[in-house]
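_Backbone structure tokens_
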Amino acid sequence: MRRRAFKADDLSGDRLTLRGDEAHHALHVLRLSVGDEITLFDGRGLRATARITGVSGESLVAEVLHREAESSTRVLIIATAIPKGERADWLVEKCAELGVAQVVPLLCDRGQVSPGAGKLARWRRKADEAAKQSGQSRSMTIREPMALLAALEAFASGGPAWFGSPGATRTLAQAIDECAAGDAASRSASIWVGPEGGFSPDEVALLKRSGALAVSLGGTILRVETAAVAAAAVWGVMNCE
């Protein structure tokens, strides 16, 4: 059975101490004790196996037995308008499970849902939990909300960029294939998802001027969260190692 992973900020030493929620879950939910082995990750690509050597109150001490750095170089940014309510939580959780590197909340002409500090903090906790559940060594980064132009300037130049457009003749899968055939860096990319009403004409012009290509995710109109997760799944499968 795969061990539950615990997040530790620093895995550089031979011994470490877990406190707070992570230690509470280990000691009182899973009822781990001295001698049990645990899996740790730092959220930045390093994973370790450790053995519990001591318990003191609400903390535990563990000896690091083995470390392994994540070798994957896949980087996907999902820049997306934010749906309302729990749909946004689902978007964040599933993108994190699928290995998306960053989610950038977009402030769009037709959708101005702007998450506050409390919601961003909750999403970051969800990203950590999704990394634990899905066996990843990296936690997905949740950026502060950004206007489309600022986001394009910050994130659209690092590799291929695609934006969802129901009328596009090229599918996302075809676009990824074209990048691979042309030796483009399809392993580092950004996908841009508009609000329920789609990107405005001015925003589409901005995307195209930034080099982003219009792609289709199929023959139906998708909700924001469905489009973001479907795009992440297509990209992930086609870049699977």
